[in-house]
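Work Package 4 report. The design task specified in the project plan requires that, given a folded chain encoded as C-alpha cells, an amino acid be chosen for each position. We show below one input record used in the internal validation round.
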C-alpha cells in the first residue's frame, strides 16, 4: 500500500512529492524487493520502522549495498524495540529542518494546532535539542503548516494530542513526514508557550468532553528550550550508551524558569535494556535569549554522577554561533563537528580559567601540606597534554594565578562539601563541579559542561615525574573492543578468516540500537572472544587479528 506526501507550492493547492512504501518482511527476496523499490524513488532513501519512533529502526541508504544493510539492521531494531519488524521506505531529503506541529482533536469533530516545535538538532535521527517556537518560521508558513496538520487530523477523525511532523527546506517549502499519534517527548516546550496542560487535555478528550479552546485562543507567549539528557558518551558518535548506577543526582529545579521531567533518583540503575534518556531539561523565558541563558545555568547546575552523560554536548550546542543565529538543519552536529565532538570550546577560550579553578581547588584541598607562610607557589599544570608552569598566590579571600603573562583572580565562599562550587573569576560568576581528586595531583573538574582531567604537581614533584615511565598504548588496529555495553547479536567471522579493513566483524545491540563493529585493518582473525547472545561491557575484547 502507499500513502502520498505533500509539498507546499505557495498557494492553497498541494502536489504529491514522494511516496511511502510499506514492506512486510518475508523469508526470501526481502533485500531484492527493497532495492528494486529504492530504484523507483531514486537514492538517497530513508528506511524506517513502520511502528517506530525515537530514531529506532532508521537508516539512510545511498546505494543498493547500504539499502540491504539498512534493511537488516532496521528490521532487527524494529522487532526488538516495537515487536513489529515491518518497514517503510521514503525519499530522503538532504539538509532539511525538522519542524513539527502539535495538534489536539476531540470526538466532536473539533481540532486545533498548538504552534510548532523546532527539532532539527539530532543524532542518529533522534532529537537532542528542541525549542518552541521556531526561529525560522514566519506567521504565514506557521499558519499553512498548522492548517494542513489540522486537516490531516480531521480527515482521520483523530481525537487526542498528536504531532504532525514535516521537513522544511531553506525556502520554507514543507513536506509531510509522518504523524505521531501520541504525546511527544518534547511536548513540555509547547505547554510552556501556550499555557495548556496537554496531558489534562488528552484526559478530557478521552472522557468525551469537547475542546475548551478555539484556534484564536492559542497564544505564543515567550520561548522554551528542551535538552534531552542522556546516559551517553558524546565523544563517541555523538552519543553511545553508558550504563551504571547514579551515585549522585540533583536536578537544577531551584533555578527560575526550569522544569525537569524524569523518572529516576539517586541509586537508580541505567541498564542496556532501555532507552538511555535520563531526563528532559526544559527552560522557559520571555524570549529566546533568556531561555537559552537559563539553559546554560541549568546545565551547569545539573549534578549527575555514576554514568557518562551528554551535558558537555548540549552545553556546546546551545552556545554555538550557528545555533544562536538559527542556522540549523538535521545535519547540524556532523556539519559543526565533522571529526566528531571533542568538547574543546572551553579549552579554546578559557584555558587559563580552567587552570586557575583547578589550582584553587588544589590549594584548598591541600592546605595542611602547602606551607601557609609561603606567599607564592610555583606549580606545574598538565591540561590536554600540555604542561605549563604557573605562579599561584593567595591574599586573604582572593586567589591569583599568573600564567603565560596573564593574571586571573578568583574569590569564593564555597563549601567544599557541596557538589556545586560557585566562584567569581575576575568579576564573572561561574559554577564548577569537582568530580574527583587524587593525592597524586590528578583532578577531574566539570566546567561549562565539559569534564577536564588536570594534573597538578609542585615544582619538585614535576621534576621527579619526568623519570616516570609512560604506559605503552595498545595497538588498537589489531584488536576490536566493544565501544559500549550491550548484547552481541551476531558474529560474522571465525579464527583463520581473512578480513578487509572496514569489514563487519560483529553486531552489538545497546539500548535497542544495533551497531556494526568493523575491522580496523586488513588481516587474519587470530581469535574470537564473543558469541551471539553474550553480554559485553565497554572495552571488552571481541576479536583479535594477527
Amino acid at each position: 500500500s502507499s500513502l502520498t506526501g505533500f509539498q507546499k507550492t505557495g498557494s492553497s493547492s498541494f502536489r504529491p512529492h514522494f511516496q511511502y512504501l510499506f514492506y512486510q518482511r518475508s523469508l526470501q527476496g526481502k533485500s531484492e524487493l527493497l532495492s528494486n523499490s529504492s530504484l523507483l524513488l531514486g537514492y538517497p532513501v530513508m528506511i524506517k520502522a513502520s511502528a517506530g519512533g525515537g530514531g529506532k529502526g532508521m537508516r539512510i541508504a545511498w546505494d543498493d549495498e547500504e539499502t540491504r544493510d539498512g534493511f537488516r539492521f532496521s528490521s532487527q531494531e524494529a522487532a526488538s524495540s516495537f515487536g513489529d519488524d515491518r518497514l517503510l521506505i521514503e525519499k530522503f531529503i538532504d539538509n532539511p529542518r525538522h519542524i513539527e506541529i502539535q495538534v489536539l482533536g476531540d470526538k466532536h469533530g473539533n481540532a486545533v494546532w498548538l504552534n510548532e516545535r523546532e527539532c532539527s538538532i539530532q543524532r542518529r535521527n533522534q532529537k537532542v535539542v528542541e525549542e518552541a517556537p521556531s526561529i525560522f518560521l514566519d506567521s504565514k508558513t506557521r499558519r499553512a503548516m498548522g492548517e494542513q496538520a489540522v486537516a490531516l487530523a480531521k480527515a482521520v477523525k483523530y481525537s487526542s494530542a498528536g504531532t504532525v511532523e514535516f521537513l522544511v527546506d531553506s525556502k520554507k517549502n514543507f513536506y509531510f513526514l509522518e504523524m505521531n499519534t501520541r504525546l511527544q517527548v518534547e511536548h513540555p516546550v509547547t505547554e510552556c508557550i501556550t499555557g495548556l496542560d496537554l496531558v489534562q487535555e488528552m484526559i478530557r478528550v478521552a472522557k468525551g468532553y469537547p475542546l475548551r479552546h478555539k484556534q484564536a485562543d492559542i497564544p505564543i507567549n515567550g520561548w522554551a528550550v528542551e535538552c534531552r539528557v542522556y546516559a551517553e558518551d558524546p565523544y563517541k558518535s555523538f552519543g553511545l550508551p553508558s550504563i551504571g548506577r547514579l551515585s549522585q543526582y540533583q536536578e537544577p529545579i531551584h533555578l527560575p524558569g526550569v522544569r525537569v521531567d524524569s523518572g529516576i533518583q539517586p541509586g537508580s540503575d541505567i541498564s542496556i535494556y532501555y532507552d538511555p534518556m535520563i531526563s528532559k531539561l526544559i527552560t522557559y523565558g520571555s524570549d529566546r535569549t533568556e531561555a537559552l541563558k537559563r539553559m546554560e545555568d541549568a546545565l551547569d547546575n545539573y549534578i549527575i554522577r555514576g554514568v557518562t552523560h551528554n551535558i558537555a554536548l548540549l552545553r556546546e550546542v546551545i552556545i554555538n554561533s550557528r545555533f544562536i543565529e538559527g542556522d540549523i538543519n538535521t545535519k547540524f552536529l556532523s556539519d559543526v563537528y565533522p571529526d566528531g565532538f571533542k568538547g574543546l570550546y572551553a579549552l579554546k577560550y578559557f584555558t587559563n580559567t580552567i587552570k586557575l579553578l583547578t589550582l584553587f581547588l588544589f590549594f584548598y584541598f591541600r592546605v595542611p601540606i602547602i606551607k601557609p607562610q609561603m606567599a607564592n607557589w610555583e606549580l606545574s599544570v598538565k591540561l590536554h597534554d600540555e604542561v605549563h608552569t604557573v605562579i599561584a598566590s593567595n591574599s586573604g579571600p582572593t586567589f591569583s594565578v599568573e600564567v603565560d603573562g596573564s593574571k586571573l583572580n578568583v574569590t569564593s565562599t564555597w563549601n567544599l562539601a557541596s557538589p556545586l562550587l560557585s566562584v567569581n573569576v575576575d568579576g564573572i560568576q561561574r559554577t564548577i563541579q569537582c568530580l574527583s581528586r587524587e593525592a597524586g595531583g590528578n583532578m577531574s573538574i566539570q566546567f561549562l559542561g565539559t569534564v577536564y582531567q588536570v594534573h597538578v604537581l609542585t615544582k619538585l614533584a614535576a621534576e621527579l615525574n619526568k623519570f616516570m615511565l609512560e604506559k605503552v598504548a595498545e595497538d588498537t588496529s589489531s584488536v576490536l573492543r566493544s565501544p559500549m555495553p550491550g548484547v552481541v547479536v551476531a558474529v560474522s567471522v571465525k579464527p583463520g578468516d581473512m578480513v578487509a579493513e572496514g569489514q563487519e566483524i560483529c553486531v552489538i545491540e545497546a539500548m535497542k540500537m544495533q551497531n556494526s563493529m568493523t575491522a580496523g585493518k586488513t588481516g587474519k582473525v587470530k581469535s574470537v572472544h564473543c558469541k551471539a547472545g553474550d553480554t559485553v561491557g565497554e572495552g571488552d575484547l571481541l576479536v583479535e587479528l594477527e
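Residues 64-82 form the longest helix (19 residues). Validation will be extended to a larger panel in the next phase.
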